[in-house]
Specification:
The structure is a homodimer. By secondary structure, chain A is of the alpha/beta class. Chain A is built from 13 helices and 11 strands. The longest helix of chain A is centred in the C-terminal third of the chain and has 36 residues, at 320-355.
Chain lengths: 435, 435
């Protein structure tokens, strides 16, 4: 273990100094396609190399191919944070290498996963009695939930979601061979419940915090309809769910407590590194009916439902450890503080845009993402985006709303400061002025 | 970062001393269901706690709930190893928090993943030109492969596999709503190609190293039939694929190079922690056709196919880093050495069983798993297993072959020595004699 201790010290130091330096790197990788691969040997090594070689290549070879998700100046997609306690929890998880297949293959993994999901449900103000487990990403959480919805409503093969729902709904219905019916949205990009045609529907996916504009579907009204017509309600709060930790933001979540299944991604806005998607249901039996399958080589005496009976994959790693570490090392107050600060910073950025001539805000801002554009053509906005990202100073992404090309600034890194947000605005104005 | 450096030093030390002590723990957790959860607070913390509290509870509270997959005396299911370089690579991956969505969101992640999959294909003697990517587990790899098989053969809804194929094939076909036809096996638990009825089939799953007995289906013969009738051939070598790193074991793999898709799990027998399942195909276009779906907010200028276009999930973590670290820090020679030693130790254990009266070997042993039993009833064997596992000295699992209850000893930990194997045999005889 002496070399592990030495290499471990080097690795910890590498991560620490990476996080110290991360603000300095070009946020979006400026590498050309194929360049990273071409700079590495094309055949595997015959003989062992020291771990320090891996570390050296991380700097020297892989470095330029990194897009710095840990940068406080990453404002694209949904900005994330891998916090320090969670990073170390991943080290511990890899050291323990627990494999959750049956309860007995790691009682600690299963019981901590169920407990932390219960903790998180409490923090988010969800009702008691939900059963939760962790999936890799919301793609899987939504797939699994819709598979259960399909199973409980034989012959009903239609899924409804807003035209602003995430592409994972499209992919899930494609895999499940369900028909996806996109429901029109109102002027604030919210699903219009009056436009829902529930005939033959097995499920509705309502989104709290859509990917493009973070709009909030009217979940309570949708729940009314779903309950009346016995249709499964799946709530996708992958990004925005974290905000429910703040009581003053709970008005965005009215009705989600009535969902059959809810997905929130702690790897988005709760300081947990990818991957960690949490999925709750009040219909645990339906999940077990849809997924349980125990072959002979896994039959055991104890009568405990294993987490693998609730989902597609058999083996799971110890993801609960990092979520547990974050919930403990931040606590309710620490998480609230960060979410509030992000919402404040997004409000500040919105004000800066509104105060400036020649720019406009193009969507309501329920959380920490601002949708805006330079007054002018789509091409102009696309060019601004490209120049901003090519500068490497900040990284911002785009979407399309109401047919128009729109810029998005997403605040979500625990390391982002007001100075970083002001920098983003300066870079945007500078690049727009230069055109 | 000073607290991260300090906490990191504690965490590295914790893992190092865990691995030093791991041989001493009861291998199978002796916890009662619910005990771990009950010993933790039922509500989340309000305020931040130091990371050292997490470490303290790892020892004090979670410890008894761990089943020690890292123990050299873990012989159940398929024994695994999370090697030191891979553990540290997971620390680095969490520190970097790369999220592979599009190529540009982490060129290094995508290009290293494609390169390491190419390296591994070379090490395993697979033909050039395959495209590979990483999934979480073989459950997903097989699901994804069968989804592609379904897509390329519209109207053909039958999948064939041996009655000894892994339960993940059952689960995949259930999710995909395909009909699963279990083909009878011969006396050595190998799929009988003459019994394959390929009418309406979109895929055959052939297994190299079945879960119960590690039997090897006659892949070349199966490939002949599949090619003639244009049926997708998926090879499940989740456990045994690693053995192909040794040229002298390649005779078990004849024909797999003709498969449409192949899954191998480096998290089983190649020193990589869970999760890391590698999936290759020679039909990359079919994968892309089945899975590609780019919403507006992910459209970019560069023409690079992203890994997310080959599979169900949109975002992936930097799993390639740990695989790369293992391939470099062990090299071809280091991996060969360990696989050979495991096969040798399994041979030794088989000899010990054969040399002893009152015990029998019940299946051929192509790799590092020995199937055996005490001559006598199923109940007797079940009782032996329970006593052995309750002793905590070693952990062994069971299966059922030819209708009989069978004990399985699986060698796969890089830390297992001949002494550990001899101990397992001593414990087995002791517990059998005590009955």
């Amino acid at each position: 273990m002496s070399s592990f201790r030495d290499d471990g010290a080097l690795a910890v130091d590498w991560v620490a100094s990476y996080l110290e330096r991360v603000r300095e790197f070009p946020v979006l990788s400026q590498a050309e396609p194929g360049a990273i691969r071409a700079s590495l040997p094309q055949t595997p090594p015959e003989d062992p190399e020291p771990f320090s070689n891996v570390l050296a290549d991380l700097d020297g070879v892989l470095g330029p191919g990194l897009t710095h998700w840990q940068s406080p100046r990453f404002f694209a997609y949904f900005a994330t944070t891998s916090t320090e306690p969670a990073i170390l929890a991943e080290l511990l998880a890899a050291g323990l290498n627990q494999v959750g297949i049956l309860w007995r293959t790691s009682p600690a993994l299963q019981e901590l996963e169920e407990l932390t999901l219960d903790w998180l449900a409490q923090l988010l103000g969800l009702p008691p009695g939900l059963h939760g487990h962790i999936e890799d990403t919301a793609s899987t959480s939504t797939l699994v939930a819709l598979a259960v919805a399909r199973a409980v409503a034989p012959g009903r093969r239609v899924v409804l979601c807003s035209e602003h729902a995430h592409s994972s709904v499209d992919k899930a219905t494609r895999l499940l061979e369900l028909e996806l019916r996109k429901v029109p949205a109102d002027e604030a990009f919210r699903l219009r419940p009056d436009a829902m045609e529930l005939a033959d529907a097995c499920a509705v996916v309502a989104t709290i915090g859509t990917t493009s504009s973070t709009s909030v579907d009217p979940v309570a009204e949708i729940a009314d309809r779903c309950e009346k017509e016995c249709v499964w309600l799946h709530v996708d709060a992958a990004y925005a769910g974290a905000a429910a930790v703040c009581p003053e933001l709970r008005d965005r979540f009215v009705g989600w407590e009535r969902a059959d299944s809810i997905v929130v991604n702690p790897h988005k806005w709760l300081g947990v590194p990818t991957d960690c998607s949490t999925l709750w249901t009040r219909r645990q039996d339906a999940f077990r009916d849809a997924f349980s399958l125990i072959p002979e080589y896994l039959r055991v005496a104890e009568e405990v439902t294993s987490l693998s009976e609730h989902t597609q994959v058999l083996g799971r790693r110890f993801r609960a450890l990092k979520l547990w570490a974050v919930l403990r090392c931040y606590g309710r107050s620490g998480l609230q503080e960060r979410i509030r600060e992000h919402v404040r910073l997004a409000g500040l950025f919105e004000q800066l845009v509104r105060a400036e001539g020649g720019w406009e805000i193009v969507a309501p801002r329920p959380f920490s993402v601002v949708c805006f554009r330079r007054v002018g053509s789509d091409d102009l906005n696309e060019e601004i985006l490209e120049r901003v990202n090519a500068s490497g100073e900040v990284f911002i992404s785009h979407t399309r709303l109401g047919g128009r090309y729109v810029l998005r600034l997403a605040i979500g890194s625990f390391r982002t400061t007001e100075e970083d947000v002001r920098l983003a605005w300066d870079v945007l104005r500078r690049e727009a002025d230069a055109l």
